[in-house]
Model the fold of this input.
Amino acid sequence: MSGDSGLALSKTVTIRNSRGLHARAAAKLVGVAERFSCAMTVSRGSQTVPACSIMGLMMLGAGKGAEIVIEADGWDAREALDSVVGLIEAGFHED
Done:
């Protein structure tokens, strides 16, 4: 990733909600990611998708217990990463 600031951050998180990264959870993640200007991606294994792509996020097949890596690059990367990680760690507010 290469944003304008050179501030690239990443964090590995575990999917906690019982249904995993399904359509509603993916939509919530996209809603949070779209509030920020930094470039964000989500990876599972060798597959990386934009954090603002519902279909891409669902195609990761990240069920409960799966580890994913969130990467953010840009001037607001820290706030964006904290917000997305917080949503995931809260189980997408589903359980």
Notes: The mean pLDDT is 94.
